[in-house]
Design goal:
The chain is an all-alpha fold. It contains 5 helices and no strands. It has a single domain, classed as Orthogonal Bundle (Non-ribosomal Peptide Synthetase Peptidyl Carrier Protein, Chain A), CATH 1.10.1200. Helix 1 runs antiparallel to helix 3.
Length: 79
């Protein structure tokens, strides 16, 4: 999951100049992930990983890093 997520975020949502230096724990919002990117990311996650991510959980702490996003998705996969 992490590799697929990382590839989508770094290739589709962040400018290449920012993404090549980021680790899985770096803050994506500070790196340039904007509101349109968040919407695209949530759609991608729901389709790719067959989960439903509640709108009330679309919070910075769930989206701030690759690691945080992975934890959030896994939580809903097992639900």
């Amino acid at each position: 999951m992490r590799d697929i997520l990382r590839q989508f975020v770094f290739d589709q949502l962040l400018r290449p100049v920012n993404s090549h230096r980021l680790t899985d724990d770096d803050n994506l919002l500070e790196a340039g992930l904007d509101s349109i990117g968040v919407m695209r990311l949530i759609h991608f996650l729901e389709v790719q990983f067959d989960v439903r991510l509640p709108e009330k959980e679309v919070l910075p702490e769930n989206l701030e890093s690759i690691s945080a996003i992975e934890r959030w998705v896994r939580l809903h996969q097992s639900a």
